[in-house]
Design goal:
By secondary structure, the protein is α/β, with parallel strands linked by helices. The chain has one domain: Spore Coat Polysaccharide Biosynthesis Protein SpsA, Chain A (Alpha-Beta Complex), CATH 3.90.550. The strands form four sheets. Strands 1, 6, 8, 9, 10, 11 and 12 form a seven-stranded mixed beta sheet that branches. Strands 2-3 form a two-stranded antiparallel sheet. The two termini are 28 Å apart.
């Protein structure tokens, strides 16, 4: 699943007329970088949620065949449902197996082919989630969660733990969202913190290329890095 329903407040006025995932870097919309990478990795179906200017996403991407896969659209009401709410709303489209979720407003070259193997390990451990963590960027030095021995902690981490930032890429079990109702607004952090407290969240540190495209300045920086000309 690619999360594409957000308003993109920090990217206004760009996002007043264009949904954030359609903003271009190096001549290509952010979401297309994701779709093409998933297609090359062998994925055939991707659920994409939408709310703000959602019809523009549908008009631009259609059924996904132009990127080599099939898009199933998950429409949300105006204002969207937040991350967990959007995923819970899309569960009927995602099925009853583990699934990969990628934020539509990031750029990352983490190897998505690893997700299947991670899912198998999650099953054997009884985990509900596995998060890809990255070194804290300058705009988020405090990080999100602590990683130690392949496990993630929100509170009282082991002494050797490293505090890192959640990349926006995760593998999840549908059961993580079982308490949420379809159409209910819900953030992701409370679900993850509760699962971490139960010892059911794994993670890994990724030191490769990752960008949170949250401002016009970061969008321009990524474009320059990839050889574009914004």
């Amino acid at each position: 699943m690619i999360l594409a329903a957000g308003r993109g407040e920090r990217l206004r006025p760009l996002t007043d007329v264009c949904p954030k995932p359609l903003l271009k870097v190096a001549g290509k919309p952010l979401i297309v970088w994701h779709l093409e990478r998933l297609a090359r990795a062998g994925y055939s179906k991707v659920v994409v949620n939408h709310a703000h200017l959602g019809q523009m996403l549908i008009d631009a991407l259609g059924d996904g065949s132009g990127c080599g896969l099939r898009i199933i659209w998950s429409a949300e009401p105006a204002g969207a449902l937040e991350t967990a709410g959007g995923i819970a709303h899309a569960l009927p489209l995602l099925g009853d197996q583990s699934f990969l979720v990628v934020n539509g407003d990031i750029y990352c070259d983490w190897d998505v082919t690893a997700a299947a193997g991670i899912a198998a390990q999650m099953h054997s451990r009884g985990d509900l989630a596995h998060l890809i963590m990255v070194p804290n960027p300058s705009e988020h030095r405090a990080g999100d969660f602590c990683l130690a021995g392949g496990r993630l902690f929100a509170d009282t981490p082991p002494l050797e733990a490293e505090r890192l930032t959640f990349s926006g890429i995760g593998i999840y079990e549908p059961a993580l969202f079982s308490a949420l109702k379809a159409g209910e607004r819900a953030g992701m952090a409370p679900l993850l913190v509760a699962a971490m407290a139960a010892g059911r969240v794994g993670g890994e540190r990724y030191a490769g290329r990752w960008h949170d495209v949250g401002t016009a300045e970061r969008l321009a920086s990524l474009d320059a890095e990839l050889g574009g000309s914004l």
